[in-house]
Specification:
Blueprint (H helix, E strand, L loop, with lengths): L17 E5 L2 E4 L4 E4 L2 H4 L8 H11 L12 H12 L5 E5 L2 H18 L7 E5 L8 H7 L2 H4 L9 E4 L4 H7 L4 E6 L2 E2 L5 E2 L2 H14 L2 E5 L23 E4 L10 E5 L20 H14 L4 H22 L4 E7 L2 E6 L3 H10 L2 E2 L1 E3 L3 E4 L7 H26 L1
Parallel strand pairs: 3-15, 5-6, 5-7, 7-10, 10-11
Antiparallel strand pairs: 1-2, 2-3, 4-12, 8-9, 11-12, 13-14, 14-17, 16-17
Helix pairs in contact: 2-9, 3-9, 10-12, 11-12
Length: about 400
């Protein structure tokens, strides 16, 4: 047991202590400024201390913090109505996290079939490399042994198939299958994109077999790809979708969105949350939508993403011994490294730039959606210096 902290030893935390943030910058206790392209793992969608979010939170804090869902919460009605107006959905259930949103999505899909007289239909097809959360059900859904090991038998009802393999999906469907669950872009799995064609084929399979299509847009949603939700690029409509991270702009907030048909089985008493949809979260969520749905905002994301993509492609060309591949879409980008990604991450942090590790030896770049072209170029310059440092270190080691 660690003698230095009373916290669980479940994180290998970097020895960095941040005191405050300003836009895309984080300021450490010693005054050092870091360019934050981690954004709290895609959570701080509008950067740090965004004035509109701060104002909304302060105003609500002076009124009421918590009511529970025993009463009507006007902010819930407002945020849910706005979300249904701009998405496929008719119904919304608010949660505190992405894992809770996924739990609600899984329960909604299973309850849909139960209500139609098919309780045997509870299996969900998921994909290798997926990450859907840390609860007992969502680690089973993700299927990665490193997250399942040591927590008893894997929760039943989940079956993994290779990512992008439509034949494997079709072969996995049987009389117990309820739904297909997929991240349009795998985050933890290494910034792996599901192609538009694959998402369209999944939608068609669900229609053919009477299954529900569940999308996990916890990380890739809420403007991160340059559209409000990533699946819009494929021109499809899911039946159920889990959302979190960016929707709260840093405040704990998640949501499960569903069509009327998909949510029909979720009647009074079938699900609940004490804190879900609390007035503070609703105030911030509505403020986030004010900004992201404003004219020109998503176009700005697409413009800055192009600057990033071009700059990263140039870095790959100039550092082929350090960078193997550039992945991602919008402002959800990944650098697959040829060197250990831990070495590249250390070099990046030495340049006062923050990124996030992922699977397949990938570093994620998840800058706030408010990042300017100038800030993107500053980040690229720091990445270039980090790549040069790694190359020099590798050369010295080889010598």
């Amino acid at each position: 047991m660690s003698a230095t902290t009373p916290l669980y030893d479940t994180y290998l935390r970097a020895p960095l202590r941040f005191e405050r943030g300003e836009g895309v910058w984080l300021i450490a206790e010693d005054g050092t400024r870091y360019l934050d392209f981690a954004a709290g793992v895609a959570v701080n969608s509008l950067g740090h201390a965004h004035p509109h979010l701060v104002e909304a939170l302060k105003a609500q804090a002076d009124k009421v913090w918590h009511l529970s869902n025993l009463y009507e919460v006007p902010g819930q009605e407002s945020l849910a109505r706005r979300l249904t107006q701009v998405t496929f959905a008719d119904r919304v259930f608010f949660t505190n996290s992405g894992a809770e949103a996924l739990e609600c999505a899984i329960k909604t899909a299973r309850r849909y079939h139960f209500a139609k007289g098919h309780p045997e239909k509870f299996h969900v097809i998921t994909f290798e490399g997926a990450f859907h959360g840390r609860t007992i059900a969502t680690i089973a859904a993700g299927g990665q042994q490193k997250y399942i090991e040591g927590f008893g038998p894997k929760a039943p009802g989940f079956y993994q198939v290779p990512f992008g393999d439509i034949a494997a999906v079709r072969n996995a469907i049987n009389d117990e299958t309820a739904a297909i669950l997929i991240e349009p872009i795998q985050g933890e799995g290494g910034i792996r994109l599901a192609s538009k064609e694959f998402l369209q084929e999944l939608r068609a399979l669900c229609d053919e077999f009477g299954l529900l299509l569940i999308l996990d847009e916890v990380q890739c949603g809420v403007g991160r790809t340059g559209k409000l939700f990533a699946h819009e690029w494929a021109g499809i409509r899911p039946d159920i979708m889990a959302v979190a991270k960016g929707i709260g702009g840093g405040f704990p907030l998640g949501a499960c969105l569903a069509t009327d048909a998909a949510a029909a089985g979720m009647v009074a008493g079938t699900h609940g949350s004490t804190y879900g949809g609390n007035p503070l979260a609703m105030a911030v969520g509505n403020a986030v939508l004010d900004v992201i749905l404003a004219d020109g905002f998503l176009e700005h994301v697409r413009d800055v993403a192009l600057v990033f993509r071009q700059g990263l492609a140039s870095l790959k060309d100039r550092f082929p011994d350090v960078i193997e591949e550039i992945r991602g879409d919008g402002l959800m980008l990944g650098i697959k490294a040829k060197v250990p990604s831990t070495d590249l991450l250390a070099a990046i942090r030495a340049e006062r730039l923050l990124a996030v590790p992922a699977g397949e030896n990938v570093l994620r770049l998840l800058p706030p959606l408010i990042t300017t072209a100038a800030e993107a170029r500053e980040g690229l310059a720091r990445l270039e210096r980090a790549a040069e440092a790694v190359r020099s270190k590798s050369g010295d080691a080889a010598a």
